[in-house]
Amino acid sequence: MNAIEVKNLTKNYKGFTLNNISFDLPSGCIMGLIGENGAGKSTTIRSILGMTKPDNGSISVLGQTVSAQLKEDIGVVLDEVGIPSSLNIKDINKIMKNMYKNWDEKVFFGYIDSFSLPTDKKFSDFSKGMKMKLGIAVALSHNAKLLILDEPTSGLDPLVRDEIIGILNDFTRDEDHSILISSHIVSDLEKLCDYIAFMHNGNLMLCEEKDALLEKYRFINLTEQQLSELDPAAIKGKKVGKFSVEAIADVEKIPSTFNSSPVTIEDLFVFMAKEEK
User: Fold this and answer.
1) Is the dihedral of CA 31, 158, 83, 138 positive or negative?
2) Does domain 2-201 have CATH number 3.40.640.10?
3) Distance CA 260, CA 227 (A)
4) Helices (DSSP H) in 141-252: which residue ranges?
5) pLDDT at 71 over 90
6) Cβ-based neighbour number of residue 241 at 10 Å
7) What's the half-sphere exposure (Cβ side, CA atoms, 13 Å) at 56?
8) pLDDT tens-digit map of 24-62
9) Tens of pLDDT along 96-107?
10) Most buried by CB count within 10 Å: which residue of 33, 175, 243, 256?
C-alpha cells in the first residue's frame, strides 16, 4: 500500500498555480520535497492534510480520504508549530492526552529530555529551534504511522539536525511507518530520504528514488561545440562559462570519451531549476 497517493493535484491562486501534481509515497519510505520558497511545497502538504481545498485532483492518505479520525495516525509539524503562546510543556502534555487516544506521555517526555526543552517555560519564550523540536516531539508521541513535516530542521544547529535525522530514520524502521518531509536544507534530505521530488514554480519537475537519481546523472565539462552535438534531451541543466560549459547529463547519453563526475541531489536541483528558468 502507498502511504500517500496524489493524483493530478491542482490549486489556483492569484499569481500562482500548483500545476497537476502527481506522486506516490510507498509505505515504509521517506520522501523529500525540494524546492525554493514559493515552489508549492507547503500548498501540496496543506492539500494532503485537508487544510487547503484543491481545485482538481484526488488525494489518498493511508488508503483513505483525510478525516478527523485518520489524523490520529498522522504526525504533523508545519513551518509554524501552532501551539498557543501561553502554554508550557506540562500544559501541552495534558491537552495532547485528551486529543490523541494513543498519546504516550513517557515517549513525549523522553523527547523533551533528549531535546533539553524546559518544561515550565512558556511557548512564547521558546526560540524558533526550540519550537520546532517541541513540534517534532508532539508528532512522534501518539503512535502515528505517517509523519508530514514542513521544514522541520529549519533554525536548528547541525548537531540537533543530525539527531533529528537519526530519530526520523529510526521511525521508518517499522515498515508501516512513512515520512513526507520538505526542506530547503537539501543535504539533510539527501542523507534521509528514499525518494526525492523536485518542485519549481508550482510544477513537479521529477519524482524518483534518490539512489536512482544519483546513478542516472553525472557532471560533464565540455565546449559549446560539444554541447551542440549532444542530444538536448540528455541535458538536465547547464552553466555556460566564458571558456567552457558545465552540465548535468543522463549518464546513458554521455559519450564514453567525455570525463564525468558524480552529482549531489543539491547540484541536480540547482541545475534543473536554472535550466527551467
Assistant:
1) positive
2) no
3) 14
4) 158-171, 186-192, 210-216, 224-229
5) no
6) 10
7) 10
8) 999 999 999 998 888 999 999 999 999 999 999 999 999
9) 999 999 999 999
10) 33
